[in-house]
Amino acid sequence: MIEIAVYLSSTEQFLCLQIKGVIKTASPCPICRDEYLVLDKKNTKLLEQFICPHSGEILDTMKTGLCQHQHKTLTIEIMKAWDEGAIEVTLPFRTYDYEDYKK
């Protein structure tokens, strides 16, 4: 059996860019690395890549590789898109056994 190891950065960066827009780390996050990649509520194709297809939750920074600043911006833009209806919110269907609640 072959095992494949996935190495993730153990320390999450707060911000990849300096004030003047210069990259300050050796491995910036994907959003900071590409200046033409903009997180916006209208860019639904990009935002949907950071949402888990099974649970509908926003993926954490260890899975996405984003810095904390861009992850906060991503969370805000996804919530704006959910509020406006640009991205469909999937809620799990829960079944209850009402026999447990009867006296």
TrEMBL record:
MF-aspect GO terms: structural constituent of ribosome
BP GO annotations: mitochondrial translation
Subcellular location: Mitochondrion
Phosphoprotein keyword on record: yes
UniProt cross-references to InterPro entries, sorted A to Z: MRPS18B, Ribosomal_bS18, Ribosomal_bS18_sf
GO CC term (a single one): mitochondrial small ribosomal subunit
Keywords tagged on the record: Mitochondrion, Phosphoprotein, Ribonucleoprotein, Ribosomal protein, Transit peptide
Keyword hit for Ribosomal protein: yes
Family membership noted in the UniProt record: Belongs to the bacterial ribosomal protein bS18 family. Mitochondrion-specific ribosomal protein mS40 subfamily.
Protein name listed in UniProt: Small ribosomal subunit protein mS40
Phylogenetic classification of the source organism: Eukaryota, Metazoa, Spiralia, Lophotrochozoa, Mollusca
Name of the coding gene: 106075072
